[in-house]
Amino acid sequence: MRRSFKFLLRPTARQAGSLAACLEDHRQLYNAALEHRRTAYRMAGVSVRYGDQSAELTYIRAADAGGQGRWSFCSQQATLRRLDKAFAAFFRRVKTGQRAGFPRFKGRGWFDTVTWPRDGDGCRWDSQPQHSSAVFVRLQGVGHVRVHRHRPVHGVVKTISAKREGRRWFVVLSCDEVPADPLPATGAAAGIDLGVASLATTSDGEHLANPRHLAASAERLARAQRDLARKKRGSQRRRKAVAKVAALHARVRRQRLDGAHKAALGLVRAYDVIVHEDLRIANMTRSASGTVEEPGRNVAQKRGLNRSILDAGWGVFLTILAHKAESAGRELIVVNPAGTSRTCSHCGHCAKANRVTQAAFACTACGHTAHADVNAAVNILRAGLALRQAAEAA
Hints:
- There is one protein chain.
- By secondary structure, the protein is of the alpha+beta class.
- It contains 11 helices and 14 strands.
- The chain has helices at about 15-45, 50-55, 55-65, 75-95, 215, 220-230, 235-270, 280-285, 300-310, 315-330, 370-394, and strands at about 5-10, 115, 125, 135-140, 145-150, 155-165, 170-175, 190-195, 200, 205-210, 275, 330-335, 360, 370.
- Helix 1 packs across helix 4 (about 75-95).
- The longest helix has about 35 residues, at about 235-270.
């Protein structure tokens, strides 16, 4: 099993400057490689590949020994691979008819991670094991940086990444061969229905609260963004205002992540089998504004709904739930959500009129009444168990 571990770095002032310089040089390398590909194709119709650009790294490092030559060759190859993956994704979207999105140049605020693909090649985790009270990671050109390791690391460290988030630096370890930590069986199964009023509702009738972290910080964010709008571009005051807005968004992101971890852990501890809907969140939060020729309807209401869905963090919650279920040895089943909120869990009658309000369900055929989210969660559980039985019978 592969798992990532993220820890806060505590660099000295000199090390923080070196980390920033490393990030900037890798950003410039990324942009130069992108310009190389664009120019070669525009001027000569030649497609430049990763292998071609990787072979030129030796000459680039020799010509700029005090700049690009300071950093790990392996980490620079990882940056070139990152660009190559961006182009591969672009061509894949072109072939499937999706909105392509040609790879862009990275501005200073859009390149925040440097990766070392192998532990021991330009980096070393726990580089000073003889130290009795602290853990360090060694990064080439930076030195031994102290790490706030708040939990043990399991498995074999494969890749190491340094990431900047606002004014903080983090180290992210990707580990292989992480042993599973199965939980004792409970014999219970549950379907969960995701929502906005409640983050999730189980088929047992339990409602997991939706804290609405973004809504709680909306006033402070609006005030900080108005303050930012008044600042002159390029000024020191504007940089401070940008940092303040970023810090508020980072706080909301951490709160949402913490809530998702706690909610997912509670479900994994309580149930052996968990069934949820296969939601297309990107489609659900698509803008309803339309075009000039065909303007959308109820745009303001749809905008508010989109904001509420994104604030709930369904995607983050489901990702964390999948990881925790795998680690704990639980079974996670994904079902098609079509009709689950309109179908009666007693008689199976499906009609739009069954859903009286957002919270009330009343079947027009048999008269069964229930909380709408609980009724949907029961239908989701039944669909998941049916899929499971069909897979076992096949």
